[in-house]
Write a structure and sequence with these properties.
By secondary structure, this protein is an alpha/beta fold. It contains eight helices and seven strands. The longest helix has 29 residues. About 40% of the residues are buried.
Amino acid sequence: MKPKTVFITGASRGIGRAIAEKFAQAGYSLALNCRVSRQELDSLACRLHNTFHVPCLPLIGDVSDESFVNQAFQTIQQEFGKADVLINNAGISHIGLLTDMSLEEWNRVIQVNLTSLFCCCKYAIPAMVQDQSGSILNISSVWGAVGASCEVAYSASKGGVNSFTKALAKELAPSGISVNAIACGVIDTSMNQCFSKEEQRQLADEIPAGRFGSPEEAAELALSIVSAPSYLTGQVITLDGGWQ
């Protein structure tokens, strides 16, 4: 039986990297994307191929650029036939007062965190509809539901991801395609290294679990959601240690 293929955006580090490792371990063929970290992504693809003996295709480019995404899916089709699973993980944050934020900075957050979902889903869906199967998983944030001071653009983009998830799930359910999201709390990745050790300690004290989540925990949840029956769809599942 031909192994399934997963396309993971933002795969060179953090949650995306952990998801790539988890799906490689499960036997998936991998199409891995990042925007600029070519050396890290190539190294990851080589290691996962050698360790788990699965095909690994690195794809370097900006997934908020429709022309790149179109080409990426053509390459995936040539190499693997189609992407059975799409994991939209690419994301950036911006911390600061809204009044200090430029329109260019605002647009970049929205493009990377939300427009990339439109581009990737647009080109992933046709083959999934043809096969009447597939799974789309979007990596969101608890701030998409409750908002965060000094992270207005990030919160708005993730709120958009949550609504995008619920709406697209209704659109694709008749075709047997599931669309879900994980709303992450504080995960121990480089995105949170902007906080001092003391700020990180104070933040961990606010979380009932008493710690940050790990990328590996997010990856384990991602695989379990993708492996679930297609009747599980339109859900934004929170992973935050009981925080929000």
